[in-house]
Amino acid sequence: MDSAIEISSDSDVEIQETRTNLPQGSVFFFLTYPLLLVSHFMVMCSTLRPHFVRGASLNANGLTRVGLPLPSSRNGFEAKLLTNGYIGSSQQDVKRVLPPSLTRPPMPLRPDIVGTSNGNGSQFRGVYGATPAVSAPGNSGNFGGGYGGFHDGMGMGMGRVINGDRLFPPSGAHGAGASTSHFNGGSDPLHRNGMGEERSSENDERLIYQAALQNLNQPKSEVDLPDGLLSVPLLKHQKIALAWMFQKETRSAPCLGGILADDQGLGKTISTIALILKQMHEAKSKSENSSNQVAEALDLDADDESENAFVKQESKAISVNGSFGMKKAKDEEASTSTRKFNGKRPAAGTLIVCPASVVRQWARELDEKVTEEAKLSVLIYHGGNRTKDPTELAKYDVVMTTYAIVSNEVPKKALKDDDENDEKYADNHGLASGFSMSKKRKEVLGAPKKSKKRGKKNADESDPDCGALAKVGWLRVVLDEAQTIKNHRTQVARACCGLRAKRRWCLSGTPIQNTIDDLYSYFRFLRYDPYAVYKSFYSTIKVPISRNSQIGYKKLQAILKAIMLRRTKGTLLDGQPIINLPPKTINLSKVDFSVEERSFYTKLESDSRSQFKAYADAGTLNQNYANILLMLLRLRQACDHPQLVKGFSSDSVGKESEKAAKRLSREVCVSLLNRLESSPICRACNDPPEAPVITLCGHIFCYQCVSEYITGDENSCPVCREQLAHDVVFSKSTLRTCAADDIGCSSSSHAKGLNKAAFQNGEFSSSKIKTVLDILQSLSNQGRGPNSTQNGGMPSSSLPYDVDDDDDDVTIIEQTSVPSTPPCNQAPVKTIIFSQWTSMLDVLEFSLNEKTIEFRRLDGTMSLAARDRAVKEFSNDPDVKVMIMSLKAGNLGLNMVAASHVILLDLWWNPTTEDQAIDRAHRIGQTRPVTVTRITITNTVEDRILALQEEKRAMVASAFGEDHGGGSATRLTVDDLKYLFMV
Ligand SMILES: Nc1ncnc2c1ncn2[C@@H]1O[C@H](COP(=O)(O)OP(=O)(O)OP(=O)(O)O)[C@@H](O)[C@H]1O
Question: RING-type domain location, by residue (predicted)?
Answer without folding.
Answer: 682-721
